[in-house]
C-alpha cells in the first residue's frame, strides 16, 4: 500500500512540475505548427495573426489580448485554420496577442505577438492630369507622418531606370518628355517602419501633339 501511495505522490509531483511551465496547462498532445508574430499595420488595414496547431481532433482555438480572452465581433473573427482576422484595424486593436489551442488532452498557449497600428494617413492624394506629348507631368501626395514616398503605375512598382522619370526629395513624381507609354493610373506608396499605405489612383492622359500644315499654293 505504501508503494502505491508513493507512486501516486510521484505522479502528482510530475503533474505539478509540468503545470509550472508557462503556456502549458496540462498533459497535451498539442503543438503549434504556426505561431503569431509581431505585426505592424496602418489604420484601417486588414490584419491576419497566424495560428495553427496539430494534435488529436477536434482542436479548438481561442485568442487572448493582453492576457484576457478575446471575443469575436463584427471586425474580428477566428478563421477555420485558427488564425485571427481583423477586417479593419483601429488604434484600440493595439496590444499583445496569443492563441490558445485545446483538445480533450489539454491546452497550449502560443508565444506573444505584438500588433502595432500606425496612424499614417494621406492628407493629399495625387490628382488626374492631362498633358501633351513631349511635355512634363507631375504627381504629388502628402501623408500625416514621416515616410518614404515611392510610386506605382497600374498597381506595379514604377521603375526609375530612366532620366526622364524621377522622384523629387519632397516626394513629387516628375516625368519629363512624356510618351504615350507613360499613360496610365499612378498612385503614391508611403512607407515607414510601422506601416505601408497607398494613395488613391490618379490617371495620366496623354494628348497627342497637333501638326498644323499649310497647303502649298
TrEMBL record:
Cellular localisation: Membrane
Full protein name: Protogenin B-like isoform X2
Signal peptide from the UniProt entry: 1-26
SMART domains linked to this entry: IG, IGc2
Keywords: Disulfide bond, Immunoglobulin domain, Membrane, Repeat, Signal, Transmembrane, Transmembrane helix
GO biological process: axon guidance; dendrite self-avoidance; homophilic cell adhesion via plasma membrane adhesion molecules
Domain Ig-like: 22-118, 134-205
GO cellular component: axon; plasma membrane
Pfam families assigned to the protein according to its UniProt record, in alphabetical order: I-set (PF07679)
Highest taxon above the source species: Eukaryota
Species in which this protein is naturally found: Cyprinus carpio (Common carp)
InterPro entries for the chain: Ig-like_dom, Ig_I-set, Ig_sub, Ig_sub2
Molecular function per GO: cell-cell adhesion mediator activity
Family per record: Belongs to the immunoglobulin superfamily. DCC family.
Membrane topology: Single-pass membrane protein
